[in-house]
């Protein structure tokens, strides 16, 4: 009996992977995929240009991961990069000529799990591409060693980072190393982007594609408006209230959970890194369950295919 159960699980997993792999095969010569990754590279080039120019002007080199750290330690850069995924995932769930074939042989839940696996894997590929693109931009003026560069020291300790809007914080330099810091920022960005993608997937199934796109923009605007600097400048908050506002929005806003310096490193009340990861994991679990429930009532409409 236990063997039968394990066999069913193995068969189900193969079916889930098969659905995801079929979606990846649709990437071949797909103009939407090509445009998404092309725009992502252009965006990385534009966002990292400040750090590269700063190093060139001061005659210094950078650690190869530093452009990624300084660029995506900023919430606005995370927001802009994640929005490009609307191009890639706006038509979720992905209906194609092969969908009727899958639905005749597997149930809706297995098919939906395949869509989730594809969305998660595609998001990971996209984020790895972002990481590699930022490294390529500064490759000719960078070294691979796991040590902060002189450029980082100038940005952090002289206050030049604040003047050119690069979040090179002293606590980052003193409490971490480039590769560890990169891995943490990458994980936070990935979790935030996955949260956005799974939110869009759920609303696409529940209310349609227009609702999915609207949900992403609402999710993005919510994070943007709850930026501590924006709140302080809009409401002219005094120092004490500014700190309290920073703590509150640090816990409430998903975008702030994805921002590296908006975390507790031992001396304030902001969320710790593991707490942000746990919150994102709970968010995924809820959205996944809601999507699996919504797919039971989803009305499949195929165009240009025989069903």
Keywords:
72% helix, two-stranded parallel ribbon, mainly alpha, 16 helices
How is this structure best described in words?
The longest helix has 30 residues, at 108-137. It contains 16 helices and two strands. The chain has one domain. Strands 1-2 form a two-stranded parallel ribbon. The protein is globular. Helix 1 (2-25) crosses helix 7 (108-137) and helix 2 packs parallel to helix 7 (108-137). The model has no long low-confidence stretch (mean pLDDT 82). The protein is an all-alpha fold and 307 residues long.
Rg, nearest Å:
22 Å
Largest sheet: 2 strands, parallel
Q: H/E order of the elements?
A: HHEHHHHHEHHHHHHHHH
Tell me the strand percentage band.
under 5%
List low-pLDDT spans: none
Q: Report the total helices.
A: 16
The total beta strand count reads 2
> Which structural category fits the helices and strands?
mainly alpha
Could you say which overall geometry the principal axes of the C-alpha atoms support? Answer: globular
Overall tally of structural domains: 1
Q: What is the mean predicted local confidence, pLDDT?
A: 82
**Estimated helix fraction:** over 70%
**Side-by-side strand order of the widest sheet:** 1-2
């Amino acid at each position: 009996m236990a063997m039968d159960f394990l066999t069913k699980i193995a068969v189900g997993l193969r079916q889930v992977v098969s659905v995801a792999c079929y979606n990846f095969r649709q990437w071949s010569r797909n103009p939407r995929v090509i445009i998404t990754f092309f725009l992502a590279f252009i965006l990385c080039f534009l966002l990292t240009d400040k750090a590269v120019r700063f190093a060139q002007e001061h005659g210094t080199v950078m650690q190869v991961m530093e452009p990624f750290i300084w660029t995506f330690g900023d919430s606005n850069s995370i927001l802009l990069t994640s929005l490009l995924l609307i191009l890639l995932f706006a038509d979720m769930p992905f209906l194609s000529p092969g969908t009727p074939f899958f639905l005749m042989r597997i149930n809706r839940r297995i098919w939906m799990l395949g869509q989730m696996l594809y969305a998660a894997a595609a998001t990971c590929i996209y984020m790895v591409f972002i990481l590699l693109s930022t490294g390529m931009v500064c490759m000719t003026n960078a070294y691979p060693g796991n040590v902060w560069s002189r450029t980082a020291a100038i940005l952090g300790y002289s206050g030049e980072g604040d003047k050119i809007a690069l979040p090179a914080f002293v606590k980052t330099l003193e409490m971490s190393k480039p590769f560890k810091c990169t891995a943490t920022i990458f994980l936070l960005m990935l979790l935030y982007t996955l949260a956005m993608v799974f939110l869009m997937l759920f609303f696409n199934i529940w209310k349609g594609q227009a609702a999915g796109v609207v949900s992403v923009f609402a999710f993005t605007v919510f994070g943007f408006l709850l930026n501590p600097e924006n709140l302080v400048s809009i409401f002219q908050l005094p120092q004490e209230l500014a700190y309290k506002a920073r703590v509150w929005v640090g816990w409430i806003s998903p975008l702030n959970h994805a921002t590296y310096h908006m975390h507790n490193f031992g001396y304030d009340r902001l969320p710790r890194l593991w707490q942000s990861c746990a919150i994102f994991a709970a968010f995924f679990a809820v959205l996944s369950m809601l999507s699996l429930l919504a797919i039971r009532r989803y009305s499949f409409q195929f165009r240009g295919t025989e069903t």
